[in-house]
Structure formats: C-alpha cells, structure tokens
Amino acid sequence: MSADPLAQDLGQLRYYITEIEIQPSITDLNCKIGAKIFIDEKLVCNLPWLDHTSPSRWSRLLLCEVSSLSKIVFRLCRSIKDKQRSFNFPAYRIDDMDEETGEVTLEHPDIVWMARIKSLTPCMAEQKFQNELVELDQIEGIYDSLEPDQTLKNLFKLPLKLASLVANALPQCGGKLSFLIFVKTWELLDQQLELDDIIRDILRGLPRIRDIIEVLSQASSLTLAHATDRLKEPIINILVLLEDASVYIFNRLIAKDLEGHTNDNGADENDTYDIESYLARLAEQQDAFHASWLPSHTSPVNQHHFIQDESTALSLEDAQTLTSESARKLTEIYDMPNLLRPLDPSGYDPDRACMDGTRDAVLNRILSWTQIQDNSERFMWISGQAGMGKTSIATSLCGRLDKIGALAGSFFCRRDDPNSSDPLRLINNLVHEIAIQCPAYAYELSYAIRANRKL
C-alpha cells in the first residue's frame, strides 16, 4: 500500500477498514460471532456480535493509525450456546493488501471461516475520484434549489468541495482519499430523515471552511503552485479534522439502529463527541490557512534605504558618498510629492477598527484575497446600509495590512469634512502615500512632476 500524502506528513499511515466479511455465512441457530482488531498487540476495535439473522459482515469506517511495519491481527470470537472461543488469524501488514481492490483474505487452519477485509487505498482513490465527483454534482443539483442551509445535510457538501479542490489544485496535499471518505459518509447521511444533536453540531461547524474554499477557488494554478509549501500543513490538518468528524458521523449512523453493543473504540455508543475541541481546532487551522497567505517576513519599507529604477540604485551607504548636487536631488525626490498637498490625516484611524475577535471571518477572507498576487480580480467593492460596519472593516483591514508592510495607502471620506469627499484630494493623497511607501514610485513621481508642473 503506497502512502497517502496526508499519511507521509503525519509520519504515519491513516489506514481505513471499510468492511469485514466472514465466509461462509452463519447457519447454526446457536452460533454467534464477534471480532476484534489488534494493531501491534493493542486493541483498536471491538465489533458487535452477529448471528444467523444478519449477514456475516461488519460495515464500518474504522480508522487505524499504523506504520508500514505494523502487524494487524484479526481475532474472530465464536459463541455456541454461550461457550466462547477465540481464533487469531495470521497477522498481516498493509503492504499485503491488494492495492487496486484494497482487500486481503485471511484463513485459519482450525476453522472453516475465512475473513475478507476491505480497506481504502490511495490507488482506489485515484481510480474512483472522477466518478465520485458526480456525487458532488448531484448534491449541489438537489440542494441548491432549496434555500441556503435549509437542511443541515447541505453543509456536508463543503468537505466534499474542499477535498475535490485540493485533489485537483494541490495534489501534494492529498485530497482524493479524503474525498472518498466524505462520499461514503454522505451516502449514509443522505438516507437519514432525522439527525441527533451531536451530528447537528458537527455539521454546524462546517461553514468555517467556506472561506477557505472561496480562496482556493479564486486563486490561479500558478499562485497555488507557489504557495503549496506554505499551504500544505494547514490544509492537511483541516482534511484530517474533517476525516475524523466524517468517520464519527458514519459509524454513529451505522450504529444508530443497533442495540446492546459498544462502538468501534470499545466505548459506550452514547459517548459524546468533543464538539468544543473540534470547533476550536477547526478555527485554529482556519486562521493558520489565512496566515499562510501572508508574507513570512515583511516590514514597512524604509524610504531612505534605497531608491531604484531600471538604471540606478542608491543605498544609504552610497548616499553618504554622493556629491552635494546628487544629495540635493535625492532630497528633492522625497520632497516633490508634498506638492500634491495631501490632507493630514486622511488615512485610517485605529480607534475605529472592529473590536478584537469580531469580524475575523470576513477580514481573513479579504486579507487572503489581497495576497493572491496574480488574481485577475483587482477590485473589491464592499457595500451595505449605513451603520453596518463598513468603515470598521476597512479600518481593521488597513491595520492588518499595515502591520505586514502590505498597505500602499488609504483614504477615508468623512461627512463632516468636504475636503475628504473631493475626488482630486482622494487621488492626490493615495499617490502621496504610495510614494512614501515605495521609493521607486517616488522617483518616477518626482520625475513626472518636474516634467509637468500642472500636475
């Protein structure tokens, strides 16, 4: 079994068992069978008893964390008239599985039964991915005709969409195996008429990845290729979180109609899912994703450090050796923009920013959008009624961009100041601020003003 990209980055393999079938089926009315799975002598799964009234098969999504050298042991437990006996089948490793089918067949010398264990493999994900994309189209076709979020099931298309985007745009991050897992969970989820509170809470947390989907959808393949190394860790962590939640939903729904058994981890089926931890970790990785778009080490440009155009480059050290005439020209370059008579102040007021911890989702989305350098969408218009917080959002955005040295300039209109509503003032102020931030621009601006004083 070849390693999935998620597994490689985690230093271990996420091995998914989907079905265990016992052949031949039980026919003895007094016989029951159960099963346990051990990995490196540790119990990882305790499956419920089956009798002649049900197929001799367990269908689950069993997540097992293994290494390529881990020994996996399947133990069959037989009970005849309440007399139990256990049989350990020969141990196997994940490399023993058929890569294309994900199956391994085990035989025991002392009993007639054979165990066929099915699992998911990266090879299967490659083969099935394109066909399973149809499932996503069907979900969107059915639920997009309804009001948004009219049903919680609609939210589960978000993990499907994210995994499909990652699989196509960032293959180094995996995605196809995750997509296959999400499809299996969706197929079961779609059959449910009612959902319990735990599953509802899990689904309600999924909108956190909606802005991530939007950013990945907008970014070009070139941008994503350049950002892969920075995006890889948060994306893999998000997929792992969603896989874990998906596995829980799948197994909880499978177990819903069964009585008197324990769940796959050997705990009572009424054990609650740690929703708070799930939401907190999802929010943490959401922030990490948006932070990965930002420059890793940027600082505001020191306007006296250098001036550069196609033919000249003047550093601070060079300036000390210039003649008085050259020094005068250097000073003039920075004084010239003042002829634009900018308003002071005209930029953002930090006191008008959003309160800490508020509007983070929309701010992160906008901030990520600003850092997609080859985005064909160069202009963003934020509209809304008076008092809805547009100024606060713009102020907070300016503050965040300023901290990373990515703010070229800003201009805020004010109703109580006619000058701040003058289009010429707006242009002059922005030109002045850009010149202050960008020495190369200041050089070109001073040249343009000298060439045409009417500017």
From TrEMBL:
Instruction: List UniProt keywords, sorted A-Z.
Output: Repeat
Q: Name one Pfam family in it.
A: NPHP3_N
Q: Does the keyword Repeat apply?
A: yes
Domain Nephrocystin 3-like N-terminal stretches: 364-450
| Statement: the UniProt record of this protein carries the keyword Phosphoprotein | no
Entry-linked SUPFAM superfamilies: P-loop containing nucleoside triphosphate hydrolases
InterPro entries under this entry?
NPHP3-like_N (IPR056884), P-loop_NTPase (IPR027417)
- This chain belongs to the protein called Nephrocystin 3-like N-terminal domain-containing protein
